[in-house]
Amino acid sequence: MIFEKMEQYDYEQLIFCHDETSGLKAIICIHDTTLGPALGGCRMWKYDTEEEAIEDVLRLAKGMTYKNAAAGLNLGGGKTVVIGDAEKDKSEAFFRALGRYVNSLGGRYITAEDVGTTVNDMDTIYQETPYVCGISESYGSGGNPSPMTAYGVYMAMKRTAKEAFGDDSLEGRTIAVQGVGNVSYNLCRHLHEEGAKLIVTDINDDSVERAVNDFGAEAVGIEDIYSVEADIFAPCALGGILNDETIPELKVKAVCGSANNQLLDSDKHGSQLEERGIVYAPDYVVNCGGVINVADELQGYDAERAKSKVKEIYNQMDKIFSIAKRDGVTPTVAADRLAEERIDSMMRVRSTFSLNEVTTLNRR
Ligand code: NAD
């Protein structure tokens, strides 16, 4: 049953990690390493069953292959899920045991923070392996990735505006923002600096107040954000919010935001947006500034270099809209094709014979 699942999307490796002393139960999945070592975060979650954990790690690792490829990174896709309660089950031994498993893969997989894990946990893993990102700034990391994610969303939004309005300037445009948290506050700052008008909502009143005071944003109710008169809608809070109920309400010409998995059903709702003449910027490309920032640590973090790579999201969006036109598909499908075409072409490039890859020829 597991090999059947692995065959379906050509997974490379699934590793089950167990440590009795610390209670560690983790699964590492390496989906594809054509472009380079598999990079993807470590999620700690109270999975009800092992099957659920396996499904999740397979799905998330494949998602990272596409994200890293479409981001233009020389990295493959992988992920770890840890079965446990992030509030109760953590200990030094727990993450050091996981670090040793990651290390045993010799760099085929690089881990990082995700839901349920923190910078502290990554620092503990770092005691056992260099194959970890998102560690403390004192160890030379880039720190909180949210400002870089926001800059990437801003770049993607400019290119999306060009697609929708023929001009990438956001000056005088009205942007409806759902959720003004870590990423989105920084996004609002870029938009405000360029002269955009902001309409915001958040379940947290203090966050709304901050956006109103700092950027002159107009505040609206939680449910009203879908139907406001605006040019662009930026979902920056939750997944699944583009669905049968909300899409008919939208009055915007484009959607571009940081939230993961915005389309409840990516085919159906991607097409619904297209039918309504709304340009959709695929979320996993829009929000890849964070992973670009964290991956820069692998070369010794340099903020300027990371920022210039994040700026490239504008050009990646350009390619996505070109593929969408070339193939007559939605931008979501086009983003997947961009990733697949890049992986295919690198596979061909790398098929050239290289002596040092064939160790058996060196034997006596
Ligand atoms: P965050 O928790 O700081 O911000 C989310 C905000 O949304 C919060 O202020 C929260 O109160 C608000 N919110 C929650 N439910 C809401 C609702 N129903 N209506 C309106 N507002 C609501 O999180 P973040 O780090 O800014 O991330 C935002 C989104 O971007 C998430 O979906 C996250 O997965 C995604 N993302 C973040 C990063 C990153 O670097 N932080 C990278 C990639 C993707």
TrEMBL record:
Catalytic residues, chain numbering: K79 (proton donor/acceptor)
Keywords: NAD, Oxidoreductase
Catalysed reaction, written as an equation: L-glutamate + NAD(+) + H2O = 2-oxoglutarate + NH4(+) + NADH + H(+)
Keyword hit for Cell division: no
Spans traversing the lipid bilayer: none
One annotated GO biological process: amino acid metabolic process
Gene Ontology terms for molecular function: glutamate dehydrogenase (NAD+) activity
Residue span, Glutamate/phenylalanine/leucine/valine/L-tryptophan dehydrogenase C-terminal domain: 143-351
Keyword presence, NAD: yes
One Pfam family, short name: ELFV_dehydrog
Chain coiled-coil ranges: none
Family (UniProt): Belongs to the Glu/Leu/Phe/Val dehydrogenases family.
Name recorded for this polypeptide: NAD-specific glutamate dehydrogenase
Organism: Salinicoccus roseus
